[in-house]
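FAQ: What does a multi-protein file look like?

Like this. Sequence, then tokens, then the next protein.
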Amino acid sequence: MRTYKLTAYEQTGKLIVEETFTAENDEQAKDKGRALLEEKELTNQTHRLASPAGKLLLFHS
């Protein structure tokens, strides 16, 4: 399992959410990240999901 980090921000730059979770691979991490964003109603907020290697898997500004 690999550890991924999801962050979401307000337009002012204030951090709203910072969560880490594990997934088997990048595709599963994208699915989990999207689900977390939808659950917290943050899909339209600035957000990013980063892999352990620093690769951006999801990004919205």
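And here is the next protein:
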Amino acid sequence: MDDPARGIDTAIRVGTCSWTDPALVSSGWYPSGSRDAEGRLRFYATRFPVVESDSAYYALPSARNSRLWVERTPPGFTFDIKAFAPFTGHSVAVRALPADLRPAGPPGRRLRAGDLPADVMDELWRRFDEGIAPLRAAGRLGCVLFQFPPWYAPSAEAPDRILRCAEAIRAPIAVEVRHPGWYAPEPLVSLTDFLARHHIPFVGVDAPGLLPAVRATSPELSVVRFHGRSPHWGHGSKEDRYRHTYERRELEEWVPRIRVLAKESASVHVLFNNCCADASVQAAQAMSELLAA
């Protein structure tokens, strides 16, 4: 099978933000015989060298799964892990918490980090770190992505919160912000200067309403995530928000930006999150070809 990464600068890794998204699984992209959990990951790893696991956003990762992921992928394959929702101020359903840490009440009730006692939050951080430990030990962990919510606006307290996240976990982290206020000139410079001082990657994004700002704030890693350009971004169903098929010209706009990042960071992860049918893997394939040209 052709290697889509052949010819790309070795610093650049292109992939998608999930290999288990139901829309991708049902799209027919996975061939017959590669549609169970093991087969999907093994097949995906023949096409791309990096993937983001977004499942850790919805529930704590498990060490067992991490060990299986290492076993099912070739040496050098890399996993980025999305941080558990409460760590970035998102809400989480009670049922998504470990049974022994769940508060009383309906299992479908949603909680924010501030609703959970400090000792419970500390234990969640510990178990998250435990869950990704096999990836870290095998040299397969790229970073933990902290995707802060749209209501996380610029503030004097923001840098301290980012540092607390970085200190709470034994892994490199990367930071994505979605509030448009971060992309005004002064807040953007202030944030990226802060991240650069601490060698924390600033995640460049392709998404409606957000500037396509990129800056290498870590000599080790830069990250770019493509969320699509849906007019329903910010509202509607998940499928509506992320439904977008990238045109070649839209990807070409990013090629010079990504190549600049590759000169300033040892590795660049380019990840597609336009999760509707096989749109993400097709965009990743197209970007791989553009970068190899």
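Q: Is there any per-entry metadata?
A: Some entries carry free-text notes. For the entry above: The two ends are 19 Å apart (CA to CA).
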